[in-house]
Amino acid sequence: MPVSFTHIINPFVCEPNTEHGIASRITYASLGIAYERARQAGVKVEINAVILPGEEAAIAAPAKFGGHLHQTVQDIRALHPWRPFPLIADILKAGSTSGTSSHLIYTNMDIVLQPDFYAQLRTLIEERFDSETPFIIYRRNIPGHYTGIDQLPDMYDEPGDVAYGFDCFVFPMAYVSQLDLGRCCIGAAHFDYLMFMALDAASGFRMQRVNDIPLTFHIGNDISWSGQIDYIEHNLAESMTAIQRMRQRYTVPENSQFDRLDRNHFRPNARIDSLILRKLKRLPGIAQLTVPIKRWMGRSH
Question: What's the whole-model pTM score?
Answer without folding.
Answer: 0.91
